[in-house]
Amino acid sequence: MKLLRWALLIAAVLLLAGAIILWFNRPEVVDMAGYAPADALVYLELNSLPELAKTTEQSEMWKRLAPIAGVNTRLIDTWGVRLARSGLSPVTSVVFARAQFALVVVGMNTMPEGDTLRIRPEVAVIIETHTSSWRIKGEAVSAIKHLADYAYGQSNCGERSLFNAHFVECSAAVGDRKLVAAIDGTVVIIGNGPAAVQHCLEVRRGMRPSLRNDANMQRLRESMQSRSALSFGYISSSNAAKIFSWAAPLLMGKAPGDPQLEQLLSTSASRIVGAIAWTSRGSSAGIEDHYLFSLEPEVIERLKPTFAPTAPVPGDFWRMIPPEVQSLTIYHQNSPLNAWTALNSAVAFKLDAVSAVVFAAVLRSALGSYAITNPPEMLSVLGSPLATMRSPDNESSILIARAPDPALVRQTLNKQAGQQIQILDDRLTDADPKREFTAVFHQGFVVIGKTSAVQSWLDLMREVKYRRSLSGDFEKLQSNGNVAITTFSDDVNRVNSFIVTAAAIKGAPLSSQQKEKLKTEIENGIFSTTETTLSSNGIERKTISAFGQLSTLVSLAQADSASTSGP
Questions:
Q1: Mean pLDDT of 92-110
Q2: Around Cβ 55, how many Cβ atoms within 10 Å?
């Protein structure tokens, strides 16, 4: 009996010691912003792959489509993850269970491509594996080389030690693309060039300040409850203005690269645009991506007329929407003119005379593809609802609005576009491709846009097939009555790319039969919906989709590989 008691005591002590060891071997979550350069243009963090996998496997869309791709709908084993977090599993399982991720854009490069400039971001992915270097090094090097082959189709890789870190550099067999990675202790940094990796390494060594000390980011983290979210993203006010200064010239029909214009736009935008933050979390319908575009209180006050919602869209509007839509954005303001005036007022309020003129030109250029050169004049004769729509086979969008007085709308269009525009009074006549713009009057509405885009709309409207109605989904969105702008986007391609990529990552690329079956399963249409509102903090956008914006990032690798491995 005494021997049995001693055996039980020893067993209890061993169990207690094992539990203590496992407890202290569990990694603590770190602030990934501490690994990112303070001047990073864009910052995204993902703190738990198991949580993301758990959210994905609970999605009805995943349960429906994964079996077609030959992928198990169960992505994780809860007990296996717990064991792996304690370190008692193969290294790949340990890293999966423990790793935290951050993606940073540290800069933008412009390079000539014919007569235009191509913008190429410098991007790095930072992985805190919470696992010692001696254990992860071999697996990390192998994974990096596999990633390069997967992304480029074929690559040439080399290794070397530098700055007390182990570097792996892989170049695409064709072209100038390059993948550079550094293994530094428990951290792996992977970038699309040496500069991105070097910047992050310098943060690790204390040679460059980190983003962790950005007080505004920490405030937004708290207000958006990022601790309970799957992911968090941040762009500082200065960098948001800088990114705007690169994008705005494109709206104005100018090539990027004019330093004086970019400086003017950046300085002016910084007086209006605040920081941008993003979170994603699971919802009953999939993933909810929440964006906040911070604005100054005075700007918010002046924008209120622009974001004041109206009654639900009337039923006759949906007769203007064809059976196939790439994207549809509906602006719910009672008066398009009042909304435009308030937007201009908010911008001009914060700017000097010269900057206000430039920004007014940017705003006007946004309507240039609809033959509108004088927005106040044109919007004064259009009624609500007003919407923009893009067809699947055309890059340009069209504008759809009620025409309270068709003769007045026609007169205004002729005044602004002159000989560049043709006007049709029914849907049975084809547009003349020699004219740049076309307007079609139909059942109390007018459709305006580039001729090719309007012709695409005409072709779709003539198709004799079941018309998929979005009105039911829209009415659900409008239940709270606060939505100012609603956007529907066809999510079929993104869902398809995500499933195909997920299968490839699992080591089971889809056969042609599986791809065809997957296409058939989702061809009836999968839409993401976005609500845009104005809050006390700024402009907020909430997007509900099957797999969220994170699926876009995952699918980029598949798209890049596909583009380089073809004939």
A1: 87
A2: 22
Residue type, 446: V
What are 373-412's pLDDT values in tens digits?
A: 899 999 999 998 899 999 888 888 999 999 999 999 999 9
Sign of CA dihedral 249, 253, 259, 265: negative
Instruction: Report the alpha-carbon distance of residue 459 to residue 322 in Å, rounded.
Output: 9
Length of the chain: 567
The pairing of beta strand 485-490 with beta strand 327-331: antiparallel
* Residue 119 dihedral angles phi and psi, to the nearest 5°: -95, 125
Q: What is the pTM of this model?
A: 0.85
116 strand-pairing partners: 113
**Is beta strand 421-424 parallel, antiparallel or unpaired with respect to 437-442?**
parallel
Q: Give me the amino acid identity at 440.
A: V
- Name 102's Cβ contacts closer than 8 Å, sequence gap at least 6: 32, 33, 35, 36, 43, 44, 45, 46, 125, 126
Q: Which long-range contacts (CB under 8 A, 24 or more apart) does 225-229 make?
A: 225/279, 226/279, 228/281, 229/279, 229/280, 229/281
Residues paired with residue 233 on neighbouring β-strands, in sequence order: 44, 278
Exposed e or buried b per residue across 464-501, where buried means at least 16 C-beta atoms within 10 angstroms of its C-beta? eeeeeebeeebeebbeeeebbbbbbbbbbebbbbbbbb
Report, as an integer, the average pLDDT of 274-294: 90
What was the pLDDT predicted at 3? 60
pLDDT band at 252 (very low <50, low <70, confident <90, very high): low
* pLDDT, position 4: 58
| Residue 435 backbone dihedrals phi, psi, to 5 degrees | -90, 140
User: Residue 446's pLDDT is what?
Assistant: 95
d(Cα 391, Cα 323) in Å, to the nearest integer? 10
Omega into 392 within 30° of 0, i.e. cis?
no
Structure tokens at 157: 């890789």
Q: What is the dihedral of CA 76, 77, 82, 86, to 10 degrees?
A: -80
Q: For residue 339, give the DSSP letter.
A: H
Place of tokens 């009672």: 334
Could you tell me which residues come within 8 angstroms of residue 172 by beta carbon, excluding any fewer than 6 positions away? 148, 152, 153, 154, 155, 178, 564
List beta partners, residue 487.
Answer: 329, 530
Identify the pLDDT of residue 118: 62
